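Bug report (template v2)

What were you trying to do?
Predict the complex of my protein with zinc ion.

What happened?
Run completed; filing so the output is reviewed.

Input:
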Amino acid sequence: MTERVHPVALVRDASAEDYDFGRDHPLAPVRVTLTHALIEDTGLATAPGVVHVTPEVEPERDLRDTLRVHDADYVATVHDLSRAIEPGTRFLDAPADLRARAATVGLGAGDTPAFAGVHDASLAVVRASAAAARRVLSGEVLHAFNPGGGLHHAMPDRAAGFCVYNDVAAAIATLLDDGAERVAYVDVDVHHGDGVERMFADDPRVLTISLHESGSTLFPGTGDATDVGVGAGRASVVNVPFAPQTSGAVWLDAFDAVVEPLVRAFQPDVLVTQLGCDTHVTDPLAHLALTLDDMAAIAARLHTLAHEAAEGRWIATGGGGYQLVSVVPRAWTLAFAEMTGAPLPIETPMTWRELVVARTGQEPPRDFDDAVPLLGEDVEAHTRRMAAESIATVRELVFPRHGVR
Ligand SMILES: [Zn+2]
């Protein structure tokens, strides 16, 4: 953690919290609400240097930022569906022709169903991440955090994996269009950051690094270590897949072996990070074995890297994370504490615990401690061997192109 106090933006667009696929969907916006509340109630929101950003709605600019990475036909279809679906109705109750049209762009009855207002809510997520990008690039703040962002699976022409518009990719494209020459993107979500990778796979100005559970056991099934980018972007794509049950120790060693040297060699103008916390050992949708302490260690490493390789310019978004009460708010509050350098209380505030109960009926965590999972020695050895294979492949295919040994 660096000692200096510097301006850090906390970005919140209330309409981004309308990004809601409905009751019982795992990506519930309450995770963002509870995160902002915990940041507020722990006093981090008024820590020295913290700047609150509520992005202004500028429909033309927001659309332009979205179209930097998405096809116009796709955005038009999302827009139409957004208005055609009756507010307050379920996707399954929409007319058959609408449902069929939605299915053509990935917004069908699966993981990512269209809903009334989906275009506007998705645009609000882009607006918030693009606002973070602009504040950092202009020098107004050094770091910026948009907990509601990180929709890294959205593809140029379709929605996927709970993601409609790719706000992180739009933020990166905005940085490039506004004068950044090189951007490094580090995605620590448990799922492969496939959408962001796809959008910049042929662009040598953007180094995308995704550390994730192997596609052989987890959605979206891609992100092999041999996947290193195409054309002029060859070696600007990095993937570090892990075996199920990989611990924080193994994960962090891989980060040190791959992310550290590559980002330093790349010397980005800005570091953009997606901080999905679904790597947690208790996450219901994935199988890695990280703890909150590991996530705090990741944030500390990214912070150091931002200062040492990108002159401090750091944009962070949220992402996945499906323990909406016991993991997500604490993981992202720890990340924001890292960004601000401000201390956290040992216990979670009573006001926040009351909000958790009122909003979810779930038992709130009482402090920032986390249990360390017990993994057998054979598991440790197996996962370490798999990580070593990923690292070896990246070393062979990517390092030489960046002059890294
Ligand atoms: Zn800093």
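What did the reviewer find?
The chain has twelve helices and eight strands. The pocket of zinc ion is lined by residues 2, 6, 142-143, 303, 307, 312 (CB under 6 Å).
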